[in-house]
Amino acid sequence: MKKSEEQRYDSESGDSTDRLPCEKAGTGHIRLKKSITILLPAGLVPSELFSLVNELAHKYKLGVYLSTAQNIRLLDVQDEDEEDIKAVLIKAGAVLKSPGKFPIPRICVGSSYCKLGLVDTVDLTRKIMDKFNSRTSVKPKFKIAISACPASCSNPMMTDIGIKMTKGGFDVYAGGKGGPKPKVGRRIAKGAELAAVLVVMEKLVDFHALKTDKKQRMVKLLDEPDFPFAEI
Ligand code: SF4
What is the distance in A from the centroid of ligand 1 to the CA of 114? Predict the structure, then answer.
């Protein structure tokens, strides 16, 4: 596989773009259909939003796709309908994907719903977003994943910033990735308290912002001489 192809497929999730590929009949070219992504902290869909999505899907003949990033994508959006659909969603309080937003963590279901869970991942997501959500112009394309026990159902060790709860506290990983060449991240904190995890995250995100021109996976930064964390 050529390098450019690796990079193209190294997005880990269809959420890296707001368009889906399909073949343009008779031309041999790829044209992209439009979609709109609704961001869902902790993957939770308020029932009113669920109803509205259903209503919009019927009205505008949209597909509804549940993404690996735990968001909803409305598919097959026609150009002439796009602004109307967005306006209705925004009026209802939905947050739409757009450049510069801090990435919402992908989480496992956590201690409220899984007997192996050691932490409430919904509450943890809220605490992380409370700290970071006001950031604007966040540079792509790092992702965050949280698991409530070492089983790692949300793949934190293969995500740019991965947080895994253990009986001894939080372990934090940096630079993991999926894609055509998956990589386990570097463990940079072990048995940490939540306050320490938030400090680690802040340093990582600031370092990513400092070292990134347009977009970059965290894995590319691990070998920078001034990367702020050693492997532990
Ligand atoms: S990572 Fe652990 S707590 Fe979370 S869903 Fe999987 S088994 Fe349950």
Answer: 6
Strands 95-96 and 106-107 turn out to be unpaired
Give 105's contacts (C-beta < 8 A, 6+ positions apart).
Answer: 42, 124, 125, 128, 144, 145, 146, 163
Which pTM does this prediction carry?
0.87
CA of 178 to the centre of ligand 1 (A): 19
CATH code of 5-96, in short, is 3.30.70.3340
Instruction: Report the helix count and the strand count for the chain, using DSSP H and E.
Output: 5, 10
Residue 164 CA: nearest ligand 1 atom is: 1
**Could you tell me where in the chain the CATH 3.30.413.10 domains are found?**
106-221
CA of 115 relative to ligand 1 center, distance in Å: 8
pLDDT tens sequence for the chain (232 residues)? 455 555 555 544 444 434 445 555 556 667 789 999 999 999 999 999 999 999 999 999 999 999 999 999 999 999 999 999 999 999 999 999 999 999 999 999 999 999 999 999 999 999 999 999 999 999 999 999 999 999 999 999 999 999 999 999 999 999 999 999 999 999 999 999 999 999 999 999 999 999 999 999 999 999 999 999 999 9
| Pocket of ligand 1, beta carbon within 6 A | 108-109, 114, 116-117, 147-149, 151-153
Query: What's the CATH code, domain 106-221?
Result: 3.30.413.10
